[in-house]
């Protein structure tokens, strides 16, 4: 949907920026194009066959396209034959999908492998059908190096955008790679349109009055380069429409996919100026891919080391369960008079509290925490602070309750002793109340944390 809106905006801007005379001329060209497309759709004629033969003459066998199809099919075949469900994010990650907390922590290869991971059979079938259709044209025109480089680069850049937008989501770059091929096709059609406009200008300079009402045939383009006939455009257009509608309805036409389209378009504009005559030279393709790699590295730098808070949150939960069980066992021993009150207090102060402080230090040390997890980390640190306070208050209450005052004196001092005993009792009750209040507050936060842990990745 975002892609459709973007195209609509660009179309509106182009309309507003052209004069009425230019719009009329372009409208005439478009009408003539539609008429030729209609004729081509019903009568393919020898032009289409000639185009196919010219493609085969350029590159007799397309090896990259079937190889990419085979890899995509093998990956989803492995997923389906495994124990995990294809809808399970963990399964997709195991087969190479991208997850920010893993990709940005040394597994950057996932930006490439994620381009071969699909989230369903229909997703695979549509991508493979489009890949075969585009590959039959683009691999032969642009060459194997350009075709492969654009496919992988578009998928990788789409993956980078996904990392930025969904740092804790499981994402795939398959659709981004296909959008990149459509960008390459748009670049090819752009250069073809430029050739036609140059041809019209040349005809006008020769004084041909029909220059504005016609377009060059496949064998009349500038410098005798061949162009994509209208019947081929029609078939590619139908495939593009199906792919775009499916992507929009499936939520696979967002900023990441538009980025893939832009990568393919830019690479095609840079490398495709003479593609109707010859493949881009390997040195130019290598230079373009090197520039893409450098840009990708620069874009990836701010995304490095996205924190995976899951282990630390799970450790906090485990620490609470372990320390609570340890204290309960010590309390039972205390009630059976197998442990002194001072030993029980020291357990809380010198064993349990340091464990909580160590957990808090690990949480504090986390850097580049995703926005989706920042609230959870804040809650965990608040729980650890409150729980440490409650254990200190509990130790204080134990010591106060263990105070063994001397027996009540006789005579006049008896009333003073009673007042002191009442004061100690109130102090003990206040200390116990503070401990219980801090404990309740900490456990409320703990339950909120526990409801969200263990954390599991989700599909975008």
Give the gist of this structure.
The protein is mainly α.
Assign the CATH superfamily of the largest domain: Rhomboid-like
Q: What Rg do the Cα atoms give? A: 35 Å
The assigned structural class equals mainly alpha
Average of pLDDT: 82
Shape: elongated
Separate helix tally = 17
- Extended strand count: 3
> What is the CATH topology descriptor of the largest domain?
Rhomboid-like fold
Major β-sheet annotation: 3 strands, mixed
Give a verbal description of the structure.
This protein has 460 residues and is mainly α. It has two domains: 2-303, Rhomboid-like fold (Up-down Bundle); 310-459. The protein contains 17 helices and three strands. The chain has a three-stranded mixed sheet. Helix 8 (121-142) packs parallel to helix 10 (174-205), helix 9 (144-165) packs across helix 10 (174-205) and helix 10 (174-205) crosses helix 12 (255-271). The longest helix has 40 residues, at 413-452. The protein is elongated and about 130 Å long. The two termini are 16 Å apart. Residues 211-224 have low confidence and may be disordered.
Features:
2% strand, 74% helix, 460 residues, 17 helices, mainly alpha, 3-stranded mixed beta sheet, Rhomboid-like fold
Task: Describe the protein's topology.
Layout: H1 2-17, H2 20-42, H3 45-58, H4 64-81, H5 89-94, E1 98-99, H6 100-103, H7 110-113, H8 121-142, H9 144-165, E2 169-171, H10 174-205, H11 230-249, H12 255-271, H13 282-300, H14 310-335, H15 341-365, H16 371-401, H17 413-452, E3 458-459
Parallel strand pairs: 2-3
Antiparallel strand pairs: 1-2
Helix pairs in contact: 2-11, 4-8, 8-9, 8-10, 8-11, 9-10, 9-12, 9-13, 10-12, 14-15, 15-16, 16-17
């Amino acid at each position: 949907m975002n892609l459709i809106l973007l195209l609509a905006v660009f179309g509106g801007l182009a309309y507003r920026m052209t004069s009425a005379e230019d719009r009329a001329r372009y409208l005439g060209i478009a009408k003539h194009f539609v008429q030729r497309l209609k004729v081509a759709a019903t009568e393919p004629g020898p032009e289409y066959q000639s185009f196919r033969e010219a493609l085969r003459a350029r590159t007799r066998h397309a090896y990259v396209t079937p190889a990419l199809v085979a890899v995509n099919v093998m990956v989803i075949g492995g997923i389906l034959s495994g124990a995990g469900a294809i809808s399970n994010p963990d399964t997709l990650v195991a087969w190479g999908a991208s997850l920010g907390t893993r990709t940005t922590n040394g597994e950057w290869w996932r930006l490439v492998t994620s381009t071969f991971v699909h989230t369903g059979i229909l997703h695979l079938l549509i991508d493979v059908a489009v890949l075969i259709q585009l590959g039959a044209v683009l691999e032969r025109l642009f060459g194997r190096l350009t075709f492969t480089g654009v496919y992988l680069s578009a998928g990788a850049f789409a993956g980078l955008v996904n990392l930025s937008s969904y740092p804790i989501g499981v994402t795939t770059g398959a659709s981004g790679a296909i959008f990149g091929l459509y960008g390459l096709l748009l670049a090819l059609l752009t250069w073809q349109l430029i050739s036609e406009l140059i041809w019209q200008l040349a005809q006008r300079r020769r004084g041909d009055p029909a220059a504005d009402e016609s377009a060059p045939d496949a064998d009349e383009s500038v410098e005798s380069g061949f162009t994509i006939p209208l019947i081929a455009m029609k078939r590619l257009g139908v495939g593009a429409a199906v792919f775009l509608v499916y992507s929009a309805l499936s939520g696979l036409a967002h900023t990441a996919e538009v980025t893939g389209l832009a990568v393919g378009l830019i690479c095609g504009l840079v490398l495709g100026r003479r593609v109707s005559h010859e493949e881009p030279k390997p040195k130019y393709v290598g230079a373009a891919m090197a520039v893409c790699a450098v840009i990708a590295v620069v874009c990836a730098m701010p995304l490095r080391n996205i924190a995976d808070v899951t282990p630390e949150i799970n450790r906090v939960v485990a620490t609470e369960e372990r320390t609570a069980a340890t204290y309960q066992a010590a309390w039972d021993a205390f009630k059976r008079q197998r442990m002194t009150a001072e030993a029980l207090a020291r357990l809380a102060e010198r064993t349990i509290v340091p464990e909580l402080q160590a957990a808090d230090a690990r949480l504090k040390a986390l850097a580049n925490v995703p926005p989706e997890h920042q609230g959870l980390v804040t809650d965990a640190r608040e729980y650890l602070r409150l729980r440490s306070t409650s254990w200190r208050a509990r130790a204080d209450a134990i010591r106060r309750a263990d105070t063994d005052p001397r027996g009540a004196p006789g005579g006049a001092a008896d009333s003073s002793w009673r007042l002191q005993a009442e004061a100690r009792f109130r102090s003990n009750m206040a200390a116990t109340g503070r401990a219980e209040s801090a404990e309740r507050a900490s456990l409320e936060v703990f339950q909120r944390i526990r409801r969200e842990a263990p954390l599991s990745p989700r599909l975008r």
